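Form 7-S
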Amino acid sequence: MHLEIITPEKKLFSGEVESIKLPGTDGSFGILDNHAPIIATLKKGTVKITDSKKQVENFEINGGVVEVLKNSVIVLAS
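Output:
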């Protein structure tokens, strides 16, 4: 699936990933391929992504919103 992490200042990440773990306001949750469409709010925390080579990257955010639709994930972070 394709992931973009965007802040008001710049694009932090854009690329293909295998899984994403997000700090939701109601608790952390994960997203895998073919996830149901969702829009959720995020709190301050770490976005953890795993790519197809099993490499892990972490991004710190102060909150935001995530949208998942048709294997495309957009994180609008502050």
